[in-house]
Amino acid sequence: MRPAISVAESRDLDKKTIEEIGIPSAVLMERAALGIYHDMINNPDLSLTKTLVLVGNGNNGGDALVVARLLFTHNYPVDILLTGEPDKLSSESKRQLDICRYYQINEVPTATDMNGYSTIVDGLFGSGLTRDVEGAYKELIDKANASSASIHAIDIPSGLNGDTGKPMGTAIKATSTSTIAYEKIGMVEPESWEFTGKIFVDDIGIYRNNHIEN
Ligand SMILES: NC(=O)C1=CN([C@@H]2O[C@H](COP(=O)(O)OP(=O)(O)OC[C@H]3O[C@@H](n4cnc5c(N)ncnc54)[C@H](O)[C@@H]3O)[C@@H](O)[C@H]2O)[C@@H](O)CC1
Ligand SMILES: [K+]
Fold this sequence. Notes:
This protein has helices at 7-21, 25-41, 59-73, 91-102, 135-146, 193-196; strands at 4-5, 51-55, 78-82, 106-107, 119-123, 150-154, 176-180, 183-184, 198-202. The protein is an alpha/beta fold.
């Protein structure tokens, strides 16, 4: 059976790894993004001729910003779409935005035509989703789903409840998803697969029992 954890356990493990074990949050974010980047470049279902990276305010958006930087530094054309004001970003994500701005990675407005992209990276919400998706975020997710681009989701397709595998208001329908550390229990439910697409599990140094379970 595929090992899977609840969203709450995933958040507890992140916290324990950072606060108790002492691995810095930025190190985990860098490792997560390296894994996601490699999943993307090795995935024949994605074309990386032009990628749009959707960035939410939390650390899921921080992962997305590091992925944008890795694509950029490896010469893949990439644009960033910030959904909020930079001062609303989590501190980890703000650090990553500053690095992206050092590299002068192109930023585009929310009204951008998504059909101009071959791939969209979904970094809107991950394990921090707390309520139904409405308003501008719902519009953005529905627009991404309706576009001709393939979507690669970070950790959990945005809007999907990681515990039930059901959408909360709406949810990203991804071609593929890189989930961090362990699959979330909702992703084992076949009804979630129209949202997750192909699932990659990325080892970033977060373990339930201080070592990798095989
Ligand atoms: N350093 C860390 O803590 C790590 C975090 N990781 C990433 O960080 C994610 C979790 O980050 P966060 O805890 O910051 O949470 P998220 O990035 O999932 O989202 C939290 C943000 O979304 C907002 N929000 C929640 N539901 C909403 C809704 N329906 N409509 C509008 N806004 C809504 C919250 O107010 C908050 O600003 C993981 O899924 C993973 O991608 C990974 O990089 C592993 C390490
Ligand atoms: K996501």
